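U., I forgot to send this yesterday:
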Amino acid sequence: MIEQINNYFAVDILYFWVNLGILPFWLVLIFFPRSHISRIFVTSIFPIFILSGTYIFMIYKSFLGSFDFIGNFSLYIGIDNLLNLFTDKSFLMLFWIHFVSINLFVGGWMVKESQKFSINNILLALPLITTYLIGPIGLFLFWIIKIFHSKSINLYD
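Result:
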């Protein structure tokens, strides 16, 4: 059974499903940030649970493929070592799941924070879309909006 699942979910197919599967969460965050659907399914542990399961499955697939996990620590030595790691599709997929998980978590956090400060949903849409595409810049845009909307700067919040 596990072998059949392992064979079906090749890295290319898993990449397709992760990208397709993350879209509904982002659409709910962007268009219905204050809805019960958003609160129950998007800003809860639910999407992180699914993406964590996918991440664990990719680690399992990598382990079966005799991936050099200890060698991964060489990415901290230099950018050329990081480039070598990205030539492996398994590592690249692990990175991609990591990236979309963190971006979705940040998007959910932005929605929760916008509710605390009563930031308009239309104003929130731009940082959410930007976070989906290029995470750190979307987070920066949200902080700018939050600072101007709350009329205060709080460096430890």
